[in-house]
């Protein structure tokens, strides 16, 4: 395992190709499959390829050898169908161990024979999916699959496999059975020395939907199998490389395992064959490698040794993918058919409570009567109402829970609309829990275990849950009973946490504590503090046990008031409001029935608050009296209709907040017909409807509304918009609805998009149809989209210098295609001069530079007017000759004999992992942050308190929850200048080595400055030094992706802007550490943050791509010298942009004469 992982870090490794393809090429007949051992076997054996390891071992050996000689590092054993389940079709179940043992032995011999002193070859024991499926049509049980996979695993291990490969996974439940079996076998005494054997897992996406045959997305698949800690995760079969690429990217972004990819030789032709040539497959996989997507490549169906040789040659020049460092730090990952990523910023998670025979009489009655389809409707309605997890409980004395639980879960699995969410398998009988876990392909929650029966019982159950790959709810129970005080809740949860994490190896993020929501208002004084104790314990547990989540069953709280649903719902809403604030993450609750906190009548709200917080001894009696006085429904009905007398805008707002759709079309129509106030139907959406949804959003964000209520509001909104759409279409036909169509994109090679996103939002708000293509957008996609959508203008954005070349390319292509629409250029690296001199001459139509997002509407409004073209084309620009005539030459002269040189404290590289973000906050320069938002004025207020408040809150959350990590590397090396270049040396020796470690090539400015001027010349004999650095803020891309999935552009822009500021602050702080400590040429320096931002210190840190050194290719040298990709994971794109985008890199110059300048 250590050898393989070390190689994976150094280079891209290669798998073999199709075993079946090679066997088919042998054109074997029935007698070849029978050999001498199976002459009299009663069934036909032709096509049982695995059997050839017994009957024609030399042929299998030669196939292995051919792949190894072609350049494969790994060969797979000939055991794809090597389970008793698959071999049952041939009545060969009794030969399964022999088949797997011989297959591994043959492969091992081939690997040993071809291994040489420089390259070791490995055997991957192939474990296929079987020909049965647990999820879709369970003709076999989980236990039967485990038995079959266990037998196969023993044969593969005994035969000498170096790796166990669970491959071609079309049903993740099967894969979970295989992984379960592998761990069971490795726990056997005989195989315990092999517990560290690497496990590779490879799924199969069946079509362009990006899902497995059993319906899981790539992300859900990764979550479902990651508990086995696979060394490699990836995809094979079903698709060719071209079709597989987007799904490999998804998996690579979602896992910190190494990524394996072995596609088919394209898609099959009409005869089932494969036509893709070795050169073509190799070309596609080389593109994967160049993009940093893969660690292992190979081939599946249709590939041959010729394919593998071409692939091995094609990927050899490329560096392997660097796995992301903990891409989901602090997140609870669950899955159904789709992923559920629960982070510290996720709003309260609703666990649907109605599929519980103990809690829902209707559901219990349906299950008891065998009406499972109707019971499934209960589950479906909960998901539709916003349940993000489904709790399933079958604990009823008249039910056989061990059979009913799997039956209902299998039924859920047949309904994609329901099975898309994760399940919470809930039972007080652990055997029922296990029965449920055996038929789920996703990652579930187990509800629950506790220390009630002692530590040994707790450990045994927890180990089994971990082996199934589930998260776990732990109740605050121990041997002495249920915890009621906050101290006991904290004590028991802490003890449980330590056992789970320290003894069993549970991930803290997979632990959910239920500190017991107990009944209040019982009339017993000792119960009065129960709600307070839960809330207090929640705060302490979340603080002391990092990573864990808090859940609870809400209905217990108000049990004393059963039959008084209005009171119970109000109590639940009030309790949740405070518990969520304290850190409660999720709960088993029918949130769709809860009132909005702010809508609870003020007297009832006060009585609930008094009871929950035990403010007085009469709280229970007061609330009970209120309940009795308001037990009738008449007043409530009258009150509910009073709002119909309000102004129409207020009525619409009320309908949206309350989720009432009865009158929404009537009220929407009234607004729309008031053409004096709302000239267009769109105005009704933009004003009264959006105002109502804005209130809904504010209440949701404040924890006063819950997802099911928001979904009700969204449905009301949808109904109103549905009424208006035909009217808007008619208006559009009469007068174009949009002011114009704008296609906007960050160009290929560039990953920065904050400014572009703001422009898109601004244009969208001003009635432009904006088609935002995102980042890293190829030219052909931009132009194709513009043509298909009849765009009025194309907008290009870029932050790095190479983006300018790509913009020129786009302009050339627009000219080649004879396009007649304006081209808008924006982004930090762009300028009016470059646009005019370099881009505009390549395109005969207007090309306009806009740096300020606030001006984009004005510019675009002019651009879509054809009568504005001529005035633009008549504009005059300063000629280059005139500009050059104004230049002056002022050479720099330094007396190096008297100029002091300070030695760094070390020569080489120093890495800074997870640098403390709190220490960086004082170094942040907030001016560029507010410039992102186009805000003017003086920090901190600058005329827009919301931005200031929101950035403060988000930054605090980033610090508190560890959402971002700061990674950096600093290097110091001996250096001297040679002409305009800087030679960097590996050792600090005299005389300087004749061959440098690296060379930085300088560019001389017209006024005659060059960075090499600030380093002592080699001819002077003075020993000088240079520093290098790279720092990154990691985690922003994942956080922004969450916001963008929720269509929250504002928070996404905020998160990116903060990441940029933190990266710059890290660069500033690191430079100070360098000047005062690591390379102490200014050790007595003591400057305030403002002085640092004004560069009042000695020395500079110019960055490639900026005015003093505009050549981005210098980053390649820096990355190689510092080992940036390997040390901190920061990569360079094909256009030399840094990824993650919130990164800063540069050189350190210490000389007191060093200053910034612009080459030009």
UniProtKB/TrEMBL annotation:
Listed PROSITE patterns: ADOMET_ACTIVATION, B12_BINDING, B12_BINDING_NTER, HCY, PTERIN_BINDING
Q: Which GO terms describe its biological process?
A: homocysteine metabolic process; methylation; tetrahydrofolate metabolic process
Q: Which residues form the Hcy-binding domain?
A: 1-315
In the UniProt record, does the keyword Repeat occur? yes
Annotated Pterin-binding domain ranges read 348-613
What family, per the record? Belongs to the vitamin-B12 dependent methionine synthase family.
* Subunit structure, interactors included: Monomer. Dimer. Forms a multiprotein complex with MMACHC, MMADHC and MTRR.
The written remark on domains in the entry is: Modular enzyme with four functionally distinct domains. The isolated Hcy-binding domain catalyzes methyl transfer from free methylcobalamin to homocysteine. The Hcy-binding domain in association with the pterin-binding domain catalyzes the methylation of cob(I)alamin by methyltetrahydrofolate and the methylation of homocysteine. The B12-binding domain binds the cofactor. The AdoMet activation domain binds S-adenosyl-L-methionine. Under aerobic conditions cob(I)alamin can be converted to inactive cob(II)alamin.
Protein's recorded name: Methionine synthase
This chain's source organism reads Ciona savignyi (Pacific transparent sea squirt)
């Amino acid at each position: 395992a250590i050898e393989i992982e070390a190689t994976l870090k150094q280079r891209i490794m290669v798998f073999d190709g199709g075993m079946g393809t090679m066997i088919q090429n042998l054109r074997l007949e029935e007698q070849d499959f029978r050999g001498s051992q199976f002459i009299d076997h009663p069934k036909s054996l032709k096509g049982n390829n695995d059997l050839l390891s017994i009957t024609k071992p030399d042929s299998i050996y030669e196939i292995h050898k051919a792949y190894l000689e072609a350049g494969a590092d790994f060969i797979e054993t000939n055991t794809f169908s090597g389970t008793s389940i698959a071999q049952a079709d041939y009545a060969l179940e009794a030969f399964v161990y022999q088949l797997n043992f011989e297959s591994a032995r043959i492969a091992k011999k081939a690997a040993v024979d071809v291994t040489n002193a420089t390259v070791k070859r490995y055997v991957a024991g192939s474990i296929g999916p079987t020909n049965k499926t647990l999820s879709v049509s369970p003709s076999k049980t989980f236990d039967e699959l485990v038995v079959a996979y266990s037998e196969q695993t023993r044969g593969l291990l005994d035969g000498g496999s170096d790796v166990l490969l669970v491959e071609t996974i079309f049903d993740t439940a099967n894969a979970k059975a295989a992984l379960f079996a592998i761990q069971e076998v490795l726990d056997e005494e005989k195989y315990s020395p092999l517990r560290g054997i690497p496990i590779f897992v490879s799924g199969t996406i069946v079509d362009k939907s990006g899902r497995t045959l059993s319906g899981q997305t790539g992300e859900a698949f990764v979550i479902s199998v990651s508990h086995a800690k696979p060394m490699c995760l990836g995809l094979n079969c079903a698709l060719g490389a071209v079709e597989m690429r987007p799904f490999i990217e998804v998996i690579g972004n979602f896992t910190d395992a190494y990524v394996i990819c072995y596609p088919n030789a394209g898609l099959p032709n009409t005869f089932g064959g494969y036509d893709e040539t070795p050169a073509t497959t190799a070309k596609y996989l080389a593109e994967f490698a160049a993009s940093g997507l893969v660690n292992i490549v190979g081939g599946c169906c249709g590939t041959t040794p010729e394919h593998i040789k071409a692939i091995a040659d094609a990927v050899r020049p490329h560096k392997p993918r660097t796995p992301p460092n903990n891409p989901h730090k602090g997140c609870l990952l669950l899955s159904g058919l789709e992923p559920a990523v629960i982070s510290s910023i996720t709003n309260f998670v609703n666990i649907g409570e109605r599929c519980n025979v103990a809690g829902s009489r209707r559901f219990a009655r349906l299950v008891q009567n065998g009406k499972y389809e109707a019971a499934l409707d209960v589950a479906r309605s909960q998901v539709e109402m916003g349940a993000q997890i489904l709790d399933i409980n079958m604990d009823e004395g008249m039910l056989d829970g061990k059979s009913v639980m799997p039956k209902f879960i299998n039924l859920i699995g047949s309904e994609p609309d329901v099975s898309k969410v994760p399940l919470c398998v809930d039972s007080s009988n652990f055997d029922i829990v296990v029965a449920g876990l055996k038929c789920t392909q996703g990652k579930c929650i187990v509800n629950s275990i506790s220390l009630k029966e002692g530590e040994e019982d707790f450990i045994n159950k927890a180990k089994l849950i971990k082996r199934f790959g589930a998260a776990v709810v732990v109740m605050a129970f121990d041997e002495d009973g249920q915890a009621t005080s906050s101290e006991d809740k904290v004590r028991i949860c802490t003890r449980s946490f330590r056992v789970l994490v320290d003894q069993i190896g549970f991930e803290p993020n997979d632990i959910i504590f239920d500190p017991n929501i107990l009944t209040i208002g019982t009339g017993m004084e000792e119960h009065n503090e129960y709600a307070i104790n839960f809330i207090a314990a929640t705060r302490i547990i979340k603080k002391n046990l990092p990573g864990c989540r808090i859940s609870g069953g809400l209905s217990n709280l108000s049990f004393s008031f059963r039959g008084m649903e209005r009171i119970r719902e109000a109590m639940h809403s009030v309790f949740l409001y405070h518990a969520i604030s304290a850190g409660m993450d999720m709960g088993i609750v029918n949130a769709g029935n809860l009132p909005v906190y702010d809508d609870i009548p003020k007297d009832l709200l006060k009585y609930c608050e008094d009871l929950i917080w035990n403010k007085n001894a009469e709280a229970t009696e007061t609330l009970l009296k209120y309940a009795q006085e308001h037990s009738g429904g008449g007043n409530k009905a009258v009150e509910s209709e009073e709002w119909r007398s309000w102004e129409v805008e207020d009525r619409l707002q009320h309908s949206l907040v309350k989720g009432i759709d009865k009158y929404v079309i009537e009220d929407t129509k009234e607004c729309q017909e008031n053409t004096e106030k709302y000239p267009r139907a769109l105005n009704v959406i933009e004003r009264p409807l959006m105002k109502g949804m804005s209130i809904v959003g504010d209440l949701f964000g404040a924890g006063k509304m819950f997802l099911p209520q928001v979904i009700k509001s969204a449905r009301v909104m949808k109904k109103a918009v549905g009424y208006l759409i035909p009217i808007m279409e008619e208006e559009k036909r009469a007068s174009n609805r949009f002011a114009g169509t704008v296609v906007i994109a960050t160009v290929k090679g560039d990953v920065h998009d904050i400014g572009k996103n703001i422009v898109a939002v601004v244009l969208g708000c001003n009635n432009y149809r904006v088609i935002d293509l995102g980042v890293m957008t190829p030219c052909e996609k931009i132009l194709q989209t513009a043509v298909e959508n009849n765009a009025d203008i194309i907008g290009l954005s870029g932050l790095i210098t190479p983006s300018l070349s790509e913009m020129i390319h786009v302009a050339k292509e627009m000219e080649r295609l004879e396009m007649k629409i304006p081209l808008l250029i924006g982004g930090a690296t762009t300028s009016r001069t470059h646009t005019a001199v370099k881009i505009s001459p390549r395109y005969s139509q207007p090309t306009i530079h806009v740096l300020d997002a606030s001006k984009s509407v004005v510019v675009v409004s002019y651009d879509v007017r054809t009568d504005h073209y001529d005035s633009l084309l008549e504009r005059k620009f300063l000629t280059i000759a005139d500009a050059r005539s104004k230049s002056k030459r002022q050479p720099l002269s330094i007396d190096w004999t008297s100029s002091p040189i300070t030695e760094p404290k070390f020569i080489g590289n120093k890495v800074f992992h997870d640098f403390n973000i709190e220490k960086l906050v004082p170094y942040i320069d907030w001016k560029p942050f507010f410039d992102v938002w186009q805000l003017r004025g003086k920090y901190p207020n600058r005329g827009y308190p919301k931005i200031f408040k929101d950035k403060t809150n988000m930054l605090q959350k980033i610090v508190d929850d560890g959402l971002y990590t700061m990674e950096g590397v600093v290097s110091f090396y001996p250096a001297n200048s040679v002409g305009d270049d800087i030679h960097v040396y590996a050792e600090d020796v005299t005389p300087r080595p004749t061959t440098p470690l690296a060379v930085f090539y300088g560019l001389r400015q017209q006024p005659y400055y060059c960075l090499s001027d600030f380093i002592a010349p080699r001819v002077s004999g003075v020993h000088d030094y240079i520093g290098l650095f790279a720092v990154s803020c990691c985690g922003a891309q994942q956080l922004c992706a969450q916001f963008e999935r929720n269509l929250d552009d504002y928070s996404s822009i905020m998160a990116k802007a903060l990441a940029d500021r933190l990266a710059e602050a890290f660069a500033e702080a690191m430079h100070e550490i360098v000047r005062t400590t690591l390379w102490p040429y200014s050790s007595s320096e003591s400057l305030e943050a403002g002085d640092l931002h004004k560069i009042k210190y000695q020395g500079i840190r110019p960055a490639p791509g900026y005015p003093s050194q505009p050549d981005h290719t210098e980053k390649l040298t820096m990355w190689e010298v510092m080992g940036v990709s390997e040390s901190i994971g920061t990569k360079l794109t094909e256009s030399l942009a840094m990824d993650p985008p919130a990164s800063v890199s540069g050189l350190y110059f210490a000389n007191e004469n060093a200053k910034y300048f612009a080459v030009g």
